[in-house]
């Protein structure tokens, strides 16, 4: 049930769904190319799963979603203990979006102008980049409804409303992916892509395609994310007139997101090549920019180099080089994502004190990005159990963090 504390490990969830499917450990091992002993160790917590792609393989074999093995999202409460994710669900799933013929609305119902909608969307994007996810969640229901109204009021001569709606739904998809709401993220991404098609603007469509890759990655659909990212990037290439900074930034970010997807499906050659292409775009751009809220530039390329190395299983590389990459010039969201990656690598080599210190620092920058991240929750859960057994010096702060992440009951 959404919002409930979840004390189960990934291995315990594997055992639960395997039992529900009525298959043996040997059968599951055969389905994912592993031994019966490997499955047994995963289920008993003797062995940790180091890579997301392995979790995705298990989910596919068990015929469940990736999120089912990573754990259900907990209540996304802000400082006032409000949880507005249900309101986002209501806004996305309103019957009026099913048919514009059945639910045709008068343009007189429009509450805001496209320019006002654009300003509101940009303000929400700024909150996202600064890690103020609680505020974004609170703003999204109203923004989504406004975007829908702008769609209804758009005309063939003035498509700005569609462009604003695409940006709003892109933000919704990206935010929902961050907090483990994969199914809702996919709905938002589909709406973003549809609105972008109607906007008939190449940069709007390229930006919306990023939302699609986020949602597909969150759902464990790595092959589909690679296909979408590569298709969008190739479509974008003719738009690079005079190395326009916005187009370069969007192309670069599409390359980076596709590199992550390739890494998670264990395609090292493709991931490396996509990072190289993104680096070339960053060199042409020449600085760390934020065109179309991409935060794209040389630094973000290095952050993704670390992230893809972790997804490919190069834990030692991340432990050695991750702390050397400085992201202090980028917004909090990027800094925190990098800190989580490095902390995860440190936890995988049992350097739990350092991992805990990094997570606590990330939590100070953006509490919600840490406490509502399914990967963080699993990491903290594993470290908490080790610390409880060994009574390490990090036990007290780690225990408190585990409670804040709802990793323990």
From TrEMBL:
The UniProt record lists the HTH cro/C1-type domain at 14-69
Name it: Helix-turn-helix transcriptional regulator
CDD domains associated with the record? HTH_XRE
InterPro entries found in the cross-reference section = Cro/C1-type_HTH, Lambda_DNA-bd_dom_sf
């Amino acid at each position: 049930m959404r919002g409930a504390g979840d004390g189960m490990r990934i291995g315990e969830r594997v055992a639960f769904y395997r039992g529900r499917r009525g298959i043996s450990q040997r059968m599951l091992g055969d389905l994912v190319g592993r031994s019966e002993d490997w499955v047994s160790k995963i289920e008993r917590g003797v062995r940790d799963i180091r890579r997301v792609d392995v979790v995705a393989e298990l989910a596919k074999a068990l015929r469940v979603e990736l999120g089912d093995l990573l754990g259900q999202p907990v209540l996304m409460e802000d400082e006032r203990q409000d949880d507005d994710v249900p309101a986002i669900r209501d806004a996305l799933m309103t019957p009026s979006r099913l048919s514009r013929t059945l639910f045709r609305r008068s343009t007189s119902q429009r509450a805001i102008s496209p320019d006002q909608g654009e300003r509101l969307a940009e303000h929400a994007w700024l909150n996202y980049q600064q890690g103020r996810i609680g505020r974004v969640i609170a703003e999204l229901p109203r923004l989504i409804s406004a975007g829908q109204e702008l769609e209804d009021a758009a005309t063939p001569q003035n498509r700005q409303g569609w462009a604003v709606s695409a940006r709003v739904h892109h933000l919704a998809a990206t935010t929902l992916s961050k907090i483990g709401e994969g199914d809702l993220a996919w709905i938002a991404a589909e709406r973003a892509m549809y609105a972008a098609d109607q906007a008939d603007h190449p940069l709007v469509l390229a930006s919306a395609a990023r939302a699609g890759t986020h949602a597909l990655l969150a759902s464990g659909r790595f092959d589909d994310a690679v296909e979408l990212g590569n298709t969008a990037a190739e479509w974008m290439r003719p738009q690079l007139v005079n190395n326009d900074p916005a187009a370069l930034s969007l192309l670069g970010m599409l390359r980076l997101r596709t590199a992550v997807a390739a890494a998670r499906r264990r395609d090292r050659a493709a991931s490396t090549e996509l990072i190289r292409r993104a680096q070339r775009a960053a060199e042409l751009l020449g600085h760390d920019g934020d065109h179309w809220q991409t935060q794209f530039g040389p630094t973000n390329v290095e952050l993704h180099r670390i992230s893809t190395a972790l997804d490919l299983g190069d834990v030692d590389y991340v432990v050695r080089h991750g702390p050397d990459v400085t992201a202090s010039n980028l917004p909090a969201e990027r800094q925190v994502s990098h800190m989580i990656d490095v902390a995860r690598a440190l936890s995988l080599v049992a350097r739990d004190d350092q991992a805990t210190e990094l997570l606590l620092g990330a939590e100070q920058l953006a509490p919600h990005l840490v406490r509502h991240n399914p990967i963080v929750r699993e990491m903290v859960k594993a470290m908490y159990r080790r610390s409880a057994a060994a009574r390490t010096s990090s036990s007290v702060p780690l225990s408190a963090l585990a409670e804040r992440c709802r990793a323990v009951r």
